Amino acid sequence: MFDQRPRVDLPPSALDRFLQAAALLGAFVLGGALIAIPTTMPERVPLHFGVSGQPDRWGSPVELMILPTIGIVMWVSLELLARAPHIYNYPVPITMENAPCQYTLARRLVRWLSAALVWFFALLLLETARVASGVRSDLGPAIVFVPLGGIVAVVWYFVAAIRAR
Asked: Is 157 in contact with 106 (CB distance < 8 Å)?
């Protein structure tokens, strides 16, 4: 099926480059966190938070290194995926006429999600460090806004893709 779809070389737009740069910056933040976590965190850090945002499991800072690792792996995976929009599933049939528009929209969604996920992990690490150091007692409500941005991006994509049949 994917072999039948047209392959279109689409140069990244200014928005695509911005999203790539935002995700790359977030990946650097996560990479710095991988280096800093073992030396800057207290011996006991929060590792899980309940619905209320209160920590409900504590442990070694080494366990916390999974967050930046997952964030970086997801960023690399999504950046590679953004380069092959002809293999995605689409809500509309792909034709030679609509492929450039559909691929652009889908690639933009993947890059938006990439940036949102990387920054979600970075914000989660920052807030966890603040709780571990005693600056905060819980995660706070800001942590909810990044995933909401991802949901808005997905809804925007489906509306735009269906309109651009």
From this structure: yes
E-only strand ranges, 8-156: 45-49, 55-59
Domain-embedded: residue 159:
yes
Q: Encoding tokens for residue 157? A: 């994509």
- The dihedral built from the CA positions of residue 88, 90, 96 and 97, taken in this order, carries a sign that is negative
For the chain, the farthest-separated pair of C-alpha atoms sits apart, in whole angstroms, at 59
Domain count, the chain: 1
Within 10 angstroms of residue 162's Cβ, the number of other Cβ atoms is 11
1 is a domain residue: no
Lookup: tokens for 31: 């990479």
pTM equals 0.87
Phi, psi of 45 (to 5 degrees): -125, 155
Q: Can you give the residue range of the structural domain that contains 145?
A: 12-163
| Distance spanning both ends of the chain, measured CA to CA | 19
In angstroms, the CA 106 to CA 113 distance is 11
| Cα–Cα distance for residue pair 35/71, rounded to 1 Å | 14
Contact criterion met (CB below 8 Å) for 45 and 128: yes
12: left (phi over 0), alpha (psi -120 to 50) or beta: beta
pLDDT in tens, 46-101: 999 988 889 999 999 888 889 999 999 999 999 999 999 999 999 999 999 999 99
